[in-house]
């Protein structure tokens, strides 16, 4: 690879890292071609971009990416073969890896960067797969806020029908 090709690769990785809110670094070495193809298909179905990267070029791109601190990933995650997964939903790659590993031993999670937080090690996979997306958290908050209002409205509506029924019964008795 020439210097110019390396420079273009670093710029491309830098652009990807700047735009992606979610970056997973995995070890998919040892997968045969059929398993690798299946992994790529699953990634495509789930709107996850998978690319194999050179650690040295990825580290340079990470260092040059402004506004994001990838440094916790440098020591542990950038060793051996690295496949980078980028997505817009924080738990999507973790769920995909977890599901894929029901049939294969790999990919292993080396590290992840999710909206300003770094996670290092395969032992974090379960926690990452259970993370809620931004939309799920907003939905939960809205449901919690709506619950008391629904209770009050329900009480007012049921109380109104009780009072109306009582008044109707009293008026019928007097006649």
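^ Assign residues to that structure.
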């Amino acid at each position: 690879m020439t210097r110019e090709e390396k420079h273009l690769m670093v710029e491309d990785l830098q652009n990807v890292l700047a735009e992606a809110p979610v970056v997973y670094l995995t070890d998919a070495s040892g997968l045969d071609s059929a398993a690798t193809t299946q992994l790529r298909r699953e990634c495509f179905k789930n709107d996850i971009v998978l690319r194999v990267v050179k650690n040295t070029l990825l580290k340079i791109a990470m260092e040059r990416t402004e506004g994001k601190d990838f440094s916790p990933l440098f020591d542990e995650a950038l060793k051996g073969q690295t496949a980078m997964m980028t997505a817009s939903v924080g738990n999507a790659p973790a769920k995909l890896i977890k599901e894929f590993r029901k049939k294969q031993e790999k990919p292993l999670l080396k590290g992840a960067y999710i909206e300003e937080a770094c996670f290092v090690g395969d032992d974090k996979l379960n926690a990452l797969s259970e993370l809620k997306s931004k939309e799920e958290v907003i939905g939960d908050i809205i449901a919690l806020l709506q619950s008391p209002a629904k209770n009050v409205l329900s009480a007012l509506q049921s109380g109104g029908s009780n009072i109306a029924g009582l008044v109707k019964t009293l008026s019928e008795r007097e006649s």
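The radius of gyration is 26 Å.
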